[in-house]
Amino acid sequence: MADLYPVPEAVSAGASGPLRTFDAYLRAAHRAGSDPSGYWLQQARERLAWRTPPTVGLQGGYHTVAGEPFTWFADGVLNVTESCLDRHLGPRGNKTAILWEGDEPGDVRTLSYAELHTEVCRTANALRHLGVGSGDRVVIYMGMVPEAAIAMLACARLGAIHSVVFGGFSAESLRDRVLDCGARVVITQDEGRRGGRPIPLKATTDEALQGLEIDQVLVYRHTGAEVGFDPERDVWWHEVVPHAGDTHRAVPMDAEDPLFILYTSGSTGKPKGLVHTTAGYLLWTSWTCETTFDLREDDVFACVADIGWITGHSYIVYGPLANGATTLMFESTPLYPDAGRYWDMVERHNITVFYTAPTAIRALAAHGSEPVERHDRSTLRVLGTVGEPINADAWRWYHDVVGEGRCTIVDTWWQTETGGHMITPIAPITATKPGSATLPLPGILPVLLDSEDRVIFGPGEGRLCIAHPWPGQARTVWGDHARYVQTYFGHFRSLYFTGDGARRDTDGYYWITGRVDDVLNISGHRMGTAEFESALNASDEVSEAAVVPFPHDVKGQGVYAYIVLQPGSDDHELQSRLNALCRERIGAHARIDALQIVPGLPKTRSGKVMRRILRKVAEGQPENLGDISTLADPSVVKAIVAGAVDTSG
Ligand code: PRX
Q: Which of 130, 194, 310, 594 could bridge to 560 as Cys pair (CB 3.0-4.6 Å)?
């Protein structure tokens, strides 16, 4: 039986979120479970600022998804920015909305709700002037500057669909995304900064857009570096935005209109653009942000993710702003200038809720407790984690050292596809266990399936599915609804398949065991094995490549590549050449950690690579290979085992 950590008194005292007692949670779970449509309709009507309040909740369901997708609140009309900005102007006009900390410690900017509103209106007017209208796609390729959030909100104000591309992606990845969503306008900045190093965002944008028909590139000047400038296409932010009108009447949108597209990796080489809707997504981020963290009026909420991932969308921008909270945007890294950076910020900004990823916690724990303890962390109340399974040791370090045992830990399980939290402790009420995401939120109905696709009742381990739609669920894959249907609903009838495995214990607590498909989770970055393989196959030196994950102490998973060389190729410094290729084709975050040259890949007689074998060898468990009699050539396994790279250290 794992340790059970009750919620500390100081965390539950003064709770102000929607669910403050365990009884309230059980009642909400019962109501949302028995009448999801009515429950979320009431929440949506009460929580969001509507032009026309909806009269319907859920229409359709998973059974309709192959034809007409299900919808939430379909007859409602609203603009997301009125919930995130306009309605706060009276009560919270002078309250800090965005608290920005730049790459250098103490480089701080704040924007009040009134100031943010004005900036968003100006930017919306400027974008309108550049020809952006409702339904147009705008790609945002920026670093962690307030203008990235302003650009997102300005698009939402116009009813344009934003697609933020993480600033670490390469020119090629950016180009693919611009093409896939059909963007005519791209917003970028001269350079980003991270850990004292510049990130050449404009130069990468120029490379990505070569030969494409793009109307306009709006360029925010951040570092002042010299960058290329095409006067036909490029427009400086500072030449248009400050002069644009500072009021803008938000464009009314239908509840189900797309708010944004966010690309994520799946099990093929082609990233998929998940589409999130206006009302359902906003309700989900707003409600989960307040409920999970017990967000309070005077909280300083710090989610240190990047805006290019779903965590940044939901818990830096939309969730906190919909709640009128003060949200931190952080440009740097946890280790710059040293391992005390996060806690230095906690002390200077009086941060109360802090949300990060297990990989950062593990990297910091490796530096010991001194960098933490030299800073006052007494304002902290809730510590969140997201992105990958957290091991018990890292959990305890976060709890005992960072939180001094006074704070509660919320290990939030969710995905790009889910829009917001799904299985998570609720800060003031859920007793926690190190490494468990605990219990589903009300209305979320997890189902575990065994290896024969049978539903597991009670304790057990299997593939994690969700039995009923919730408002924040992505509705489609941009331009490829068939892929959406196949990926998420093609496996099990009337269930959403998450791609994760999970265990349910005797208390009904969930323990996420990781992906069961070909998706990797490297330092919280989601990448497909197929993306790596198609990058590697582009090398003239590579005849065949297969990529699998292995457990990595800091990154969670490392990347292990098996390479069959082209005849006559030289393996000298091959790993660094192939890493350069991955960087060029995918991005700076795509690196191979272990490389093995093999005479062939283990394939079945029908030519399918048996990844199970490759995973076991990469994990250092060649003794448990299971049945290999179906292989076309079992002798390659011997060579693979003999030449395995030691990944244990
Ligand atoms: O495997 C799960 C893991 O991250 C995947 C989703 O990745 P992405 O769409 O990039 O979103 C990350 C931020 C929500 C999931 O399928 N994951 C996420 N949170 C957790 C997790 N695994 C275990 N525990 C978590 N708390």
A: 594
* Band (305; pLDDT cuts 50, 70, 90): very high
For the sheet with 510-515, list strands across it.
Answer: 446-449, 460-466, 496-504, 510-515
Q: Which residues contact 243 (CB under 8 A, 6 or more apart)?
A: none
What atom of ligand 1 comes closest to residue 389's alpha carbon?
A: 23
Site residues for ligand 1, CB cut-off 6 Å: 264, 309-311, 386-389, 411-416, 437, 498-500, 512, 514-515, 521, 526
What pLDDT is recorded for position 225? 98
Residue 299, number of CB atoms within 10 A of its CB: 22
* Integer Cα distance of 496 and 296 in angstroms: 33
pLDDT over 70 (residue 1)? no
| Fold equal for 113-254 and 522-642 | no
| CATH for the stretch 522-642 | 3.30.300.30
Top-level class of domain 113-254: alpha beta
Which pLDDT value is given to residue 2? 62
pLDDT value of residue 493: 87
Q: How far apart are CA 70 and CA 88, in angstroms?
A: 31
Q: What is the DSSP secondary-structure string of 560-612?
A: EEEEEEPTT---TTHHHHHHHHHHHHTBTT---SEEEE-S---BBTTS-B-HH
Average pLDDT over residues 167-186: 97
pTM, 2 dp: 0.97
- Distance of alpha carbon 170 from alpha carbon 164, whole angstroms: 14
- For 614, the enclosing helix (H) or strand (E) is helix 611-618
Query: For 325-342, what is each residue's pLDDT tens digit?
Result: 999 999 999 999 999 999
Instruction: Report how far residue 378's alpha carbon sits from residue 478's, in angstroms, rounded to the nearest whole number.
Output: 45
**Ligand 1 pocket mutation pick from 388, 409, 421 by most atoms within 8 angstroms of CB:** 388
Please state the domain extents for the chain.
Answer: 113-254, 522-642
Residues pairing with 466 in the sheet: 446, 496
What gap in Å lies between CA 58 and CA 67, rounded to an integer?
Answer: 16
Q: Which pLDDT band holds residue 649 (cuts at 50, 70, 90)? A: confident
Average the pLDDT over 53-62 and give the result. Answer: 97
Q: Residue 381: helix, strand or coil by DSSP? A: coil
Q: What is the CA radius of gyration of the chain?
A: 24
